[in-house]
Amino acid sequence: MLEWLNLSVRWVHMITGVAWIGASFYFVWLENNLNRVNPKSGLAGDLWAIHGGGIYHLEKYKLAPPSMPDNLHWFKWEAYFTWMSGIVLLCLVFYWNPSVYLLAPGSSLSGPEGVALGIGSLLVGWFVYSFLCDSALGKRPALLGGILFVLLIAAAYGFSKVFSGRGAYLHVGAVIGTIMVGNVFRIIMPAQRALVAAIAENRTPDPALPAKGLLRSRHNNYFTLPVLFIMISNHFPSTYGSQYNWLILAGIAVAAVLVRHYFNTRHDSNRFAWTLPVGALAMICLAYVTGPKAPPSAPEVAPAQAASAQGPSFEKVHSVIQERCSVCHSAKPTSPLFSAAPGGVMFDTPQQIQQQAARIQAQAVTSQIMPLGNITQMTQQERDLIGAWISQGARTN
Description:
Layout: H1 2-32, E1 43-51, E2 54-61, H2 77-95, H3 98-101, H4 111-134, H5 141-162, H6 165-200, H7 208-232, H8 237-240, H9 245-265, H10 275-289, H11 298-301, H12 314-324, H13 350-355, H14 357-366, H15 380-391
Antiparallel strand pairs: 1-2
Helix pairs in contact: 1-2, 1-7, 2-6, 4-6, 5-6, 5-9, 6-7, 7-9, 9-10, 12-15, 14-15
């Protein structure tokens, strides 16, 4: 039931997230591509577009039309449901059993303390962000962006000291997601309501509120790609599983923001075209620096365990994997956490273990993110044993 609940909530989160991010991308594109040359009276600009076999003509008012239309479309529920489903997912995956997914092995925090820290970070993140935006920094967007970036990476570093790699990454994403939905709920929507109310009451709208809402909307737009990476990061243990996971997240976030900036500015010549190759080069560099080191040879790791110059025997490796890994990774897991092998990865036979040697190396030896929360208490000597066996060719005979 927990697995299907997880699946259902994750699906809702993905659907509503696609709708929210899609709207953000579209309206920023629309704003940037308006034709502002000699607009009609009262207009900021207009745009002609073709899609799906039809031609559209869109107009943006400088502030507001003379009277409100009968049907005005609002964009808010995508944001609200994305955040709400994300919080439910956070509870199901990380808070339901914090010792497995949330806390790092050997963390100084208890389960309830970890959950309290996670929830508290969401609230603190929003209030710090809102305070900085309302301060004098709000008029210096580049400096504000730099300070926000440093604070978020500092949060990632702090999380990495007490949370698992996955937990640290997802909580940075949750902080950013809370900031984004806070912008919608606390800034953008009130500004829009005030604009509509002024028109209905035949008053001159205050231009400061829509301008503030537009700024926060742009912040959300630049947050999107880092958040999307965090959403898929749990598939890539070389990122969150590294001892420098917070720096890797910083590098990927910078690359993502550069790419987003190119697409946000390409209407205004191609002076930021350099951001694309720089972003690509950054990803290549990150792939290089996160590459696993060559595992040590068997004599260097555990000479007493090496039966011969060929490295540890498979019998010893098989015994460790059966005791530490197969409780979950089996056709019939004995762990109460799973009813089927996670990811379809099973270690029931020597052939299955040999086929998964590269994955075992990445997740149990190099990054040591497996077993989850080290619930089976795999020792460093056992990890070294497996690494030595793999380095000698992962033979089963």
